[in-house]
Specification:
The chain is an alpha+beta fold. It has three domains: 188 residues, 2-Layer Sandwich (Alpha-Beta Plaits), CATH 3.30.70; 197 residues, Rossmann fold; 158 residues, no CATH class. Helix content is 37%, strand content 21%. The protein contains 22 helices and 21 strands. It has a nine-stranded mixed sheet, with helices on both faces. The longest helix is centred in the N-terminal third of the chain and has 21 residues.
């Protein structure tokens, strides 16, 4: 049997080599090629890569130790060759893909090799394209950055490939406008919603546009507020305070996404009942319509998920991002105390009550510290965030807007609709849950349903069914193995290379976390059956650590405020206990301890104002990826 292993494959090629030979002549071109290949080889050696083959001025390289090494190598190659010909600096096309390959002697075979070669061919001069799974595996190492390109249709591949471009801040020729030469139209159409649509072979998306929409709560609607827009209210005027809008230069990441964007700060009271008290400043990014023609109402993206540079929402509408309280674009509510406790907790079983209590205590310390610093954690939730949006509309004189929301952020859109129904021109809801339900409500059932839909797709595909005939059994066996005998895996800290490695005790619930994270990312779907069948414990532990985003500058204080004010109050402990008995392999560690942790984070329960049926004649586009584990159909 041919040996296989997981590697990262890089293909690099010189742009315009034939024209360069004609200009230089054979002898001078041969000398240039020698310098050119030496520069590439030096970059490969310094990045711990292995040259596999050379064809003219093209090179294939594999990286066995680190995915990040391949991305670092690509950037080093661009810089190294740029200086070897002052008259005409060379430009490269580079493609990178990670996955399982077969190797026979010195050569490698498999789909990652094909993908890397096709991505290299599709790249623009001076650009590096990578399979989107590369970004997932790299995480935040080396401060590497990527830009979404879209799902590219590449020669020889059976389905569109989710793709990212490497952003190299040290190179002037890497610009946000660079697009793969053969795929300009596909890239122009890229937005978060369209990624789901582009992988139709794996994801079933339900979309309905209706003139009358009823979004039903699971609770008795008589006990909660409902809405009909017959009593429509526009943007309400602030009472007792005046919001301020201050023009500011756009941050580098905003300029990189949309060079024509403008920015400002919305300044409002932290606590609106105390207008003369502490103020909060929220970053506002505004990208003008991209295409000529009639301009429609502004679009406000409540989660910042739409790319300011290439979102379809910008075709005929201004696209606005507003920083959400406590997160990026506002004062960050960080909790290094919580992070340290969580990292230490990885070495214990995920269901260890002592560890959970210790984390709750550290979260309490963070809460008390923020209060001493003059911050009121009770003012960071979906209700106050919705009022921030309405204050922004008031100060900018936006009478009506389209709203885009993703998953749990949908509850903020619902609250805006309740408070100011006439201000909402339309809603676009990506993986929404009904009012009073969140991913906390039925996490076991949601994950089980998503996996079963993936398994059904595998069974319907001859190749997948032949390679992985007992996927459900393999998942259950792997979960039971780790529950009976957890495995300790030593993982580098993805947020601090100098920090000690993280000791991860990988048990069943943490393996379920890895499955849920993978199902939440369309670029990983094809790798899931192999990962389940081959029981790759190191990969599972790596996904768990990276997806938890446990860095000291992460806004875990804000997350605690939002979760403890709303999400934890939508849990169904009795239902989850029953499901855990019948579906144990889908019991997750992530989020399950927040009910305990929130004991250290005392904030008011805002569910009474955020729940209840909504009946509206506002046009709504609601769609859901069929494989998402965090949503409700």
């Amino acid at each position: 049997m041919v040996a296989t292993e997981t590697v990262t494959v890089l293909f690099v090629d010189l742009v315009g080599s034939t024209e360069r030979r004609a200009r230089l002549g054979d002898d001078a071109f041969d000398a240039f090629t020698a310098r050119f290949m030496d520069a590439l080889s030096k970059a490969v050696a310094e990045s711990r890569g292995r040259e596999v083959k050379r064809v003219g001025d093209s090179l294939m390289v594999v990286f066995r130790e680190s995915v990040a090494d391949a991305v670092v190598c690509a950037s080093a190659m661009h810089r190294a060759v740029h200086v070897i010909d002052d008259d005409e600096p060379p430009r490269l096309r580079i493609g990178i893909s990670t996955g399982e390959v077969a190797h026979d002697g010195e050569d490698f075979f498999g789909m990652p090799v094909v993908e890397a070669a096709r991505l290299e061919a599709a790249a623009a001069p001076g650009q590096t394209l990578a399979n989107a799974i590369v970004r997932v595996l790299v995480g935040t190492r080396h401060a590497l950055r990527f830009r979404d390109v879209g799902a590219l249709t590449l020669k020889g591949l059976p389905e569109p490939l989710a793709t990212v471009a490497v952003v190299d801040d040290d190179r002037s020729d890497d610009h946000p406008s660079a697009q793969p030469v053969a795929t300009l139209e596909q890239s122009r159409r890229r937005s978060k919603a369209r990624v789901l649509l582009s992988v139709a072979a794996l994801v079933v998306v339900s979309a309905v546009i209706v003139s009358i929409v009823a979004l039903r709560s699971s609770r008795d609607s008589d006990a909660h507020r409902s809405l009909r827009t017959a009593t429509a209210v526009g943007v309400p005027a602030p009472k007792g305070y005046t919001p301020q809008y201050q023009t500011v230069p756009c941050p580098p990441d905003v300029r990189a996404a949309a060079a024509d964007a403008t920015c400002g700060n919305l300044v409002v009271p932290e606590d609106r009942s105390k207008p003369s008290g502490r103020q909060v400043s929220l970053l506002v990014s505004r990208a003008p319509p991209r295409l000529p023609g009639p301009v429609v109402a502004s679009t406000i993206d409540l989660c910042g998920c739409e790319n300011l540079g290439n979102s379809l929402a910008r075709d005929h509408s201004e696209l606005i991002h507003l920083g959400q309280r406590g997160y990026e674009g506002s004062p960050l509510l960080t909790c290094p105390e919580f992070v340290a406790a969580r990292l230490a907790g990885f070495s214990q079983r995920s269901d260890d009550d002592t560890t959970s209590a210790r984390i709750a205590a550290e979260l309490g310390r963070c809460h008390d510290r923020l209060v001493r610093e003059g911050i009121d954690p009770a003012q960071y939730n979906f209700e106050t965030a919705a009022r921030d949006v309405l204050d922004l509309m008031w100060v900018l004189d936006i009478k009506q807007a389209n709203f885009v929301a993703f998953q749990h952020i949908g509850v903020e859109a619902f609250d805006i609709l309740r408070m100011a129904p006439a201000a909402v021109r339309s809603l676009t809801l990506d993986n929404p849950a009904p009012p009073d339900e969140t991913r906390f409500t039925d996490p076991i059932g949601d994950l089980a349903g998503a996996f079963r839909r993936l398994n059904a797709l595998c069974e319907a595909d001859r190749s997948c069914a032949t390679s992985y005939p007992e996927l459900e059994r393999a998942l259950r066996d792997g979960y039971e193995r780790l529950q009976a005998k957890p495995v300790v895996v030593s993982e580098p800290n993805p947020f601090d290379e100098r920090a000690p490695k993280i000791q991860v005790l990988l048990d069943g619930p943490r393996s379920a976390d890895a499955l849920a994270h993978a199902l939440g990312d369309a670029s990983t779907y094809r790798a899931i059956p192999s990962a389940i069948t081959n029981s790759d414990d190191e990969l599972l532990a790596s996904i768990v650590v990276q997806e938890d985003r446990l860095s000291d500058d992460a806004p875990w204080g804000a997350q605690a405020s939002y979760f403890c004010a709303y999400e934890v109050h939508t849990e169904d402990p009795a239902g989850q206990q029953l499901e855990a008995e019948t579906l144990p392999e889908f019991v997750r560690a992530h989020d399950t301890h927040w009910a305990t942790w929130c004991k250290g984070w005392p904030v008011p329960d805002v569910t009474p104002s955020l729940t209840g049926d909504i009946v509206t004649d506002t046009p709504v586009l609601a769609f859901r990826g069929d494989l998402t584990p965090d949503g409700n159909p």
